[in-house]
Design goal:
There is one protein chain. Helix content is 86%, strand content 0%. The protein is mainly α and 103 residues long. The protein has one domain (2-102). Helix 2 (32-67) runs antiparallel to helix 3.
Length: 103
């Protein structure tokens, strides 16, 4: 489960990176419709993989607490931190696209 969560996080980072590269490279040249479609797809897919990595980290935490060595797990807290960072990055990426178009 933990490995699958990291795979979801990797895909999320690829989506964000691709959106930022597109914003920087061709952001000014996009029509409003193209910007709308790309941004909606970005938000949907990045949210999907953010929530997937969060859920899988939470399940990993439950597994460790249930079947682990009996020690405390730190994965639960890191799941919330990762989710917060990923959601913040989505908002920052959208703002970056808008600022790139204004120049």
């Amino acid at each position: 489960m933990f490995g699958t969560s990291m795979a979801a996080t990797t895909i999320y980072l690829s989506i964000v990176g691709g959106y930022l590269i597109a914003a920087y490279s061709v952001g000014k040249q996009l029509t409003k419709f193209q910007l709308f479609v790309i941004s909606i797809l970005f938000v949907l897919f990045s949210l999907w993989f953010s929530l997937a990595s969060f859920a899988l980290l939470q399940e990993s935490n439950k597994f460790i607490l249930t079947y682990g060595t009996g020690g405390a797990s730190t994965i639960g807290g890191s799941a919330y931190l990762l989710l917060g960072l990923e959601l913040t990055a989505i908002i920052v990426s959208l703002v970056f696209m808008l600022n790139t178009r204004k120049k």
